[in-house]
């Protein structure tokens, strides 16, 4: 039974180390930016690794008062593309911490 306590203590230290590394990885992800583009580059949306829109750039030729719906669609497309890139990078980065673990729901 004595060795079990040492083993548990070692596991706890490993978990604490992994939690710290995960927090650092999440912080680093937040500093990254991901760009989505639509309309041949006429609409660009940039999101952070925390999945917040940080910038929208519109080419003036895409701003047509007669066709607001097209501009709205292009913004949605560009935003979704940027979010998808951010999500893929997040999953790739954070997935390294759960790889090999048999955790329910992960």
Task: Explain how this protein is built.
With 106 residues, the protein is α+β, with helices and mostly antiparallel strands. The protein has a domain at 30-98: Nucleoid-associated protein YbaB-like domain (Ybab, Chain: A, 2-Layer Sandwich). The chain is built from 2 helices and 3 strands; from the N terminus they run H-E-E-E-H. The protein has helices at residues 2-31, 68-98, and strands at 33-38, 43-48, 53-58. It has a 3-stranded antiparallel sheet with strand order 1-2-3. Strand 1 (33-38) and strand 2 form a beta hairpin. Helix 1 runs antiparallel to helix 2. The radius of gyration is 21 Å and the shape is rod-shaped. The model has no long low-confidence stretch (mean pLDDT 87).
List keywords for this structure.
three-stranded antiparallel beta sheet, 106 residues, alpha+beta, rod-shaped, Ybab, Chain: A
Q: Gap between N and C termini, in Å?
A: 31 Å
Count of individual beta strands: 3
Order of helices and strands: HEEEH
Give the mean pLDDT. 87
The third-level CATH topology of the domain at 30-98 is Ybab, Chain: A
Low-pLDDT residue intervals, each spanning 5 or more residues: none
CATH homologous superfamily heading of the domain at 30-98:
Nucleoid-associated protein YbaB-like domain
The largest beta-sheet arranges its strands as 1-2-3
Helix vs. strand class: alpha+beta
Helix residue percentage: 55-70%
| Tally of contiguous helical segments | 2
Radius of gyration: 21 Å
Task: Show the helix and strand layout.
Blueprint: H1 2-31, E1 33-38, E2 43-48, E3 53-58, H2 68-98
Antiparallel strand pairs: 1-2, 2-3
């Amino acid at each position: 039974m004595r060795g079990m306590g040492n083993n548990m203590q070692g596991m706890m230290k490993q978990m604490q180390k992994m939690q710290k590394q995960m927090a650092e990885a999440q912080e680093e992800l937040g500093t990254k930016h991901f760009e989505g583009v639509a309309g041949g580059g006429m609409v660009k949306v940039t999101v952070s690794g925390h999945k917040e829109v940080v910038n929208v750039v519109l080419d003036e030729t895409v701003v047509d008062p007669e066709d607001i719906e097209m501009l709205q669609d292009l913004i949605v497309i560009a935003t979704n593309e940027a979010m998808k890139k951010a999500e893929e990078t997040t999953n790739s980065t954070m997935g390294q911490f759960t790889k090999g673990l048999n955790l329910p729901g992960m």
